[in-house]
Amino acid sequence: xxxxxxxxxxxxxxxxxxxxxxxxxxxxxxxxxxxxxxxxxxxxxxxxxxxxxxxxxxxxxxxxxxxxxxxxxxxxxxxxxxxxxxxx
Length: 88
Description:
Radius of gyration: 28 Å
Distance between the termini: 67 Å
Number of strands: 0
Number of helices: 2
Shape: rod-shaped
Order of helices and strands: HH
């Protein structure tokens, strides 16, 4: 009874097979993650540039005055809403 494995079909070398399967899984996870970052990197950069353009515009208009800031804010929201509406 002492020589029988706990689970049927597992022998003394089964931990090596499990380690190989885990290593292959991790290699595939890293490969897939790299591919996803390559594909999504451009959209992340475009999103950040778009946000920074709006942010700098609002800061500049805020220094000009409250009325200019309100007008720029409404125009910026309208332009962004129109652009996202056209994309959909």
